TrEMBL record:
It is found in: Membrane. GO terms for biological process: tetrapyrrole metabolic process. GO terms for cellular component: membrane. This is TspO/MBR family protein. InterPro entries: TspO/MBR-related_sf, TspO_MBR. CDD domains: TSPO_MBR. Belongs to the TspO/BZRP family. It comes from Shinella sumterensis. The keyword Transmembrane applies.
Length: 151
């Protein structure tokens, strides 16, 4: 196995594994079911497959950036978005604090946009691969905002 392949594997395992671990330990439960939600709230079963696909993309983009642009603002923003991403579920579901989670997801949205902007010149492919992630985080931000406003 080449170092490049190993790097991709490590990044994807860490991101996907971390996301699945956090998700399994911060399940929505009865509290979430009791919240008023907007009409655009998707069914609960949608979240796990969407996040699983996104975590693979996030891991691959992280590996790609690490291999070629390790000491750049793009790499720092990639790490920042991962920390914010991993912090959201424990705040929202674990601590049952949608308002604090909203602050974190707004930071996540900024970090994703920042990564895309920072990587655009050096690696347009990495930047474009974050497009579905940006769309989902923007949607999740709208959903989080609506839940805060409705409750």
């Amino acid at each position: 196995m080449s170092n490049k392949t190993l790097t991709y594997l490590v990044f994807i395992v860490i991101v996907l594994g971390g996301g699945l671990f956090i998700g399994a330990n911060n399940v929505p439960g009865e509290w979430y079911q009791s919240l008023a939600k907007p009409s655009f709230n998707p069914p609960n079963w949608v979240f796990a497959p969407v996040w699983s696909i996104l975590y693979v993309i996030i891991g691959a983009v992280g590996a790609r950036t690490w291999l070629s642009f390790r000491r750049t603002m793009a790499m720092r923003l990639w790490f920042a978005q991962l920390i914010l991403n991993f912090a959201w579920s424990p705040l929202f579901f674990g601590l049952r604090d949608p308002s604090s989670a909203l602050i974190v997801i707004l930071g996540l949205l900024v970090a994703v946009i920042g990564f895309m902007a920072a990587s655009w010149r050096q690696d347009r492919t990495a930047s474009l691969l974050f497009t579905p992630y940006l769309a989902w985080v923007a949607f999740a931000t709208a959903l989080n905002t609506a839940i805060v406003m409705l409750n």
